[in-house]
Design a protein that fits this description.
- By secondary structure, the chain is mainly α.
- 76% of the residues lie in helices and 0% in strands.
- Helix 1 packs antiparallel against helix 2 and helix 2 runs antiparallel to helix 3.
- The chain is globular.
- The two termini are 15 Å apart.
- 13% of the residues are buried.
Length: 164
């Protein structure tokens, strides 16, 4: 079941990060958003099924739940953008003065061009919502370190054929 996979991934992220760090906070927020996106997709589908079946009252109730899930996702996004990402990048700079850990955009783009075999294909991919990124657009994620890291991981998964 998809929710079990998302929950297992969240548990793995928690185990793989140090307690009390912004890295863990970002990982938890990311896992929470993935779960929210799954719930949004599920409720959106259920609303449409109910409408198709002529069950408008049920569709309305599901629609209210869908709206609540979307609001919760907006809140998680806001928290991540306004708090975690800035604090995380500061933590990375503090703990890695050489800035060696920061992924360089040029490195990401070079790897993307190599994996996609041509710049135009990679550039199109960067601008499209991506299911493996919870519907997010890869180029939007390049603005923060955690986003760059996630895009780099996904390009690696594509390169090794483990893209879902």
């Amino acid at each position: 079941d998809a929710m079990e996979v998302l929950t297992n991934e969240a548990e793995s992220l928690i185990e793989d990060t140090e307690a009390g760090t912004k890295t863990r906070d970002v990982a938890i927020a990311m896992a929470g958003q993935k779960i929210k996106h799954y719930e949004i997709a599920s409720y959106g589908s259920l609303v449409q099924i109910a409408k198709t079946m002529g069950k408008n009252e049920i569709a309305e109730i599901l629609g209210q739940t869908l709206a609540e899930e979307k609001e919760a996702d907006k809140l998680l996004t806001s928290i991540a953008e306004n708090n975690f990402n800035l604090e995380y990048e500061a933590e990375v700079r503090l703990n890695n003065p050489s800035d060696k850990i920061n992924l360089d955009l040029e490195e990401i783009h070079s790897y993307g061009h190599e994996v996609f075999n041509e710049k135009e294909r990679y550039d199109r991919w960067l601008l499209q919502p991506n299911r493996a990124l919870g519907g997010q657009i890869p180029s939007d994620l390049l603005k923060t370190y955690p986003g760059r890291e996630e895009v780099m991981r996904l390009i690696g998964r594509i390169d090794y054929g483990v893209y879902s």
